[in-house]
What does this fold into?
Amino acid sequence: MKEFELIKHYFSKQSVARKDVVLGIGDDCALIQPAERQHIAITTDTLVAGVHFPLNTSARAIGHKVVAVSLSDLAAMGAEPAWVSLAITLPTIDEAWAADFSAGVFELCEFYNLQLIGGDTTQGPLSITVTAQGYTPTEKYLTRSGAKVGDWLYVTGEIGDAALALKYIQGSVAIDDIHRASIQTKLDFPKPRVLVGQVLRDYATAAIDVSDGLAADLHHICEASNVGVNLVLDNLPLSIALRESIPVMEAYQLALTGGDDYELLFTVSDDNKVAMETALANTGVNITCIGQLNSSNKIKTLLNGESVCLDIQGYEHFSVEA
Amino acid sequence: MKEFELIKHYFSKQSVARKDVVLGIGDDCALIQPAERQHIAITTDTLVAGVHFPLNTSARAIGHKVVAVSLSDLAAMGAEPAWVSLAITLPTIDEAWAADFSAGVFELCEFYNLQLIGGDTTQGPLSITVTAQGYTPTEKYLTRSGAKVGDWLYVTGEIGDAALALKYIQGSVAIDDIHRASIQTKLDFPKPRVLVGQVLRDYATAAIDVSDGLAADLHHICEASNVGVNLVLDNLPLSIALRESIPVMEAYQLALTGGDDYELLFTVSDDNKVAMETALANTGVNITCIGQLNSSNKIKTLLNGESVCLDIQGYEHFSVEA
It folds into this structure.
């Protein structure tokens, strides 16, 4: 089976057909007629097998994850998803793999009205690059740089489960049977917080998605906004699975450094705190206040009101000794 | 050196700063404020080391080529380049490589006012995925599907040199000293026909860029437009290097199947032929009429007015036996 046939066969069956797509897959470029008076948000991510997901990850999970990772970046800007391009590098063509992978991709695309508008299929070691685009209203979008001293720091959902699942796969931790499925799902099928991001456009001062580990991503907000933070470890939203699987200090450590959570970390002024909490209650996504910003330019971790020292170097995909 | 520092260091030095870029590299997404009443053309390509370029290709050439390949797709739609995202997968971080690679990227970006707005850097076997975007006027762009019976078929520049260079690198052909540099340049530093594409918006009925081999790309036009063609081999624009390096029938064969030319193949009605030739004369790019479309739905190759049979299966990057 040739390259073009593979693409046509598995990626021509999408049900999403947006009105702003003038020309979809099949020519040298796709053509878009963007809505007027909107910004376009654009994000690109590469996921490499064995680096960003375990080698034995199912094709459907990989398909889900590559789209979810990009949607999570759009969510962090408060953007509404619109179009996606998918560049797939595969060692060999495997029809079952392609069918499952495209199913994983299209599940999310259909849910978010995200249209696949192009891409490329090439031969090589398994890796996938996704470019996703979406709309934000002009002058109404989220960045990392708007946080102010006194703002409250929040995170959606629970953090640390994906990292725990990875540790389990690597054999460095034992997990009770009752928790195994839930943490594996967190790793394989992350839920991008797309709706939360759009609601937060009206309330948050800054936002980022938690992909590299909460500490590293919090550091990005602090650096971009020129603030510091008192981070209350007691408040960190850890799952029961995480609390029951490893000692609590290790759980904090993992939650802060693990990565792959794809939750939103955001800041809100004291004035907007209640209104934001009310608005987000309608989304059905839990949020937790985990700290308050200050002018220290540092991340200080507190437990029972006292300063504790954790090694919270962010997760780096790519680290080479000098 | 960490991922983020690498990105910041080598890719923060671009001189292009477009007015329609609201937010460039550095947040979860870039933000664009697109011009009104324009379409946006979007193209994604992956280049894998050892598949799409020889393993010993210079970093600067790789940087040039990944951008040129995308610009060539934009040119084939008649689009004006605007923004580019770059996902780089590297086995190890090599500062000299990154410096040379980014120089290759920025040379083309600066020439075409193309702003780098984001991307990703990951660890793995060398491959690069580029998503480039540009503008076309609404209702005034080129596709593969508009060619009509009776239209003339043209190609820009010369074809076959990149394929010849690849054969030389692979050791399957000898090349005279005087020709080596020119064909190597054709392979490593292709010139996307961006300006030609924009001029052709007013004249051409269909266009495609020659990336997979002239025959394969011509086949795409014929299929999309539901036409056939008499292709006049005598007229194929072959370089002196190609003509002097291999027998003429092999040269035709290579020109039709080699790929990597990044010339434009386009069709124009008899009525617009002269006006198009006049308009393109101002671009300084040579064009050659190589055939005329008919209703046969087949590509027929002619030499000295007689039908000849060549094996013109298109170049497929990804071909696996069933």
Summary: The longest strand of chain B covers residues 38-48. The two ends of chain B are 44 Å apart (CA to CA). Chain B has ten helices and 13 strands.
